[in-house]
Write a structure and sequence with these properties.
481 residues, alpha/beta, Alkaline Phosphatase, subunit A, Arylsulfatase, C-terminal domain, eleven-stranded mixed beta sheet, 17 strands, 27% helix, globular, disordered N terminus
């Protein structure tokens, strides 16, 4: 009898413990998204760079996951950022080109993202996240509906205008809606290296918001032309990369590049030095989240907004910036849109892992939403969350990925499984011929198989027409008639 009473008491005690209130779950994960500017697929050590080292970027990759087939939103800055912010590819996203608001420095800024467009910053802010952006914006001039503070960011510090961001010692930056003059940079002297000032603001944000869930967007201007680095970095590389590709033809006005980019006679050394700065800054962000004790609950993503550029003396062929890929910035070949991407999340991502999952910028929106635990459905999103890939679960794949580019005669591209279709010179002729490549055995896109696989070309044609929705603002020439 005593044994039965003891057994009953034990069961009752166990049940009471099981029904007792459980401690609340920890706060939603923090998200840091670092976006390099024109960094090529092969410009990082783990992706094959051998002429200079990137120890912190390599550390990020080796401590987390390296994506081998990740794609930017576009092949130039503004539309790539629009795809990232809205979760829509360039056939749907609002900003589809680098359209200027004006052509004078006094009238800075790009065409604004419309107020009715929903950004990932707005969605996360509604979910209780503290949101901030540090770096280059390019989606709306100061005070416009497209400015960062109007698109969901509680805090912004950096360059509003892409053109002003050509200069690393600018006369001003923007602190939210306030223009901050950098008195040491007056066109004749250069005292304040803007990327370092922006970086310190970002580190301060991490310290100030370590106890609240946050989304920090860090769109660096490095290594976009002009190619300029402080002397302490230049001395490390000077004379190591000869012959230099000199660039000395730019014109200046009030300290800005107004026709191209400022002069650089040591462009190879400057490029390596700038990537060194970016690498150091990524390392400091990693170290900061560990120092603050929030690394286990923080996802850090690093990628680039498009392929490598050739302006301002940049020499991607010398550095093999694209590795095995064909094309550069402004191309829809792999070299223009396939970019490095690494994800670091100590408590969730298997260190040293790699992924061949084809993903793109518009996948970040649904990924961040899922990470934040938001259950709300968002209409018009083209992306698919890659959170399952990050945590080692079964991943849903895209039936295809799509890009379009209004410049250079008009271009479209579709990635469908192993097949890549590219249509050139279609701004006036939407039925221009399509090139077809099989990436599994032709990553360099050297063998056009369009004649051999007409049915696949026909399907590519259908997808290109299906994915493109007319825009009244950003349209191809044939749509203007």
């Amino acid at each position: 009898m005593k044994n039965l009473i003891f057994l009953f008491a034990l069961i009752l005690f166990t049940n009471c413990n099981n029904t007792a209130p459980k401690p609340k779950n920890s706060k939603p994960p923090n998200i840091i998204y670092i976006l390099a500017d024109d960094l090529g697929y092969g410009d990082i050590g783990v992706y094959g760079q051998t002429l200079f080292e990137t120890p912190n970027l390599d550390r990020l990759a080796k401590g987390g996951m390296q994506f081998l087939q990740h794609y930017s939103g576009s092949t130039v800055c503004a539309p790539s950022r629009s795809a990232l912010m809205t979760g829509q590819h360039t056939g749907h996203t609002f900003i589809r080109g680098n359209s200027e608001r004006g052509f004078t420095l006094e009238n800075e800024g790009q065409y604004p993202l419309a107020s009715e467009e929903l950004t990932i910053a707005e969605a996360l802010k509604e979910a209780g996240y503290r949101t901030a952006a540090f770096g280059k914006w390019g989606l709306g001039y100061p005070g416009s509906e497209g400015a960062p503070n109007s698109q969901g960011f509680d805090q912004f510090y950096g360059y509003n205008c892409q053109r002003v961001a050509h200069n690393y010692y600018p006369t001003h930056l923007w602190d939210n809606q306030l223009k901050e003059d950098l008195k040491g940079n007056d066109g004749n002297t250069a005292q304040t290296y803007a990327p370092e000032l922006i970086h310190q603001k970002a580190l301060s944000f991490l310290e100030e918001n370590k106890d609240a869930p946050f989304f920090m967007f860090y769109p660096s201007v490095i290594p976009h032309a002009e190619l300029v680095a402080p002397e302490e970095y230049m001395v490390k590389y000077r004379g190591k990369f000869l012959p230099e590709k000199k660039h000395v033809n730019a014109k200046k006005k009030d300290g800005y590049s107004v026709s191209g980019y400022n002069s650089q006679v040591e462009s190879h050394a400057a490029f390596a030095a700038m990537v060194n700065i970016l690498d150091d800054q990524v390392g400091e962000i990693m170290d900061k989240v560990h120092e603050l004790g929030i690394a286990e609950n923080t996802l850090i993503i690093f990628t680039s907004d498009n392929g490598p550029h050739k302006e301002g003396g940049a020499d991607p062929d010398y550095f093999d910036s694209n590795g095995p890929l064909k094309g550069y910035k402004r191309d829809l070949y792999e070299g223009g849109i396939r970019v490095p991407m690494m994800a670091y999340w100590p408590s969730k991502i298997q260190p040293g892992s790699t992924s061949n999952h084809p993903s793109a910028f518009w996948d970040f929106f649904p990924t961040a939403i899922e990470i934040a635990g938001v259950k709300k459905e968002f209409a018009g999103i083209d992306g698919i969350s890659f959170l399952p890939t990050l945590v080692g679960k079964e991943q849903k794949s895209h039936p295809y990925l799509y890009w379009e580019f209004l410049e250079r005669g008009g271009r479209q591209a579709v990635l469908m499984n192993q097949w890549k279709g590219i249509r050139l010179n279609m701004a006036k002729n939407p039925d221009a011929p399509i090139e077809l490549y099989r990436l599994t055995d032709d990553i360099g896109e050297e063998n056009n198989l369009a004649q051999e696989y007409p049915q696949i070309v026909k399907k590519m044609d259908r997808l290109m027409k299906e994915a493109h929705v007319n825009s009244e603002i950003f349209s191809f020439e044939y749509e203007k008639n």
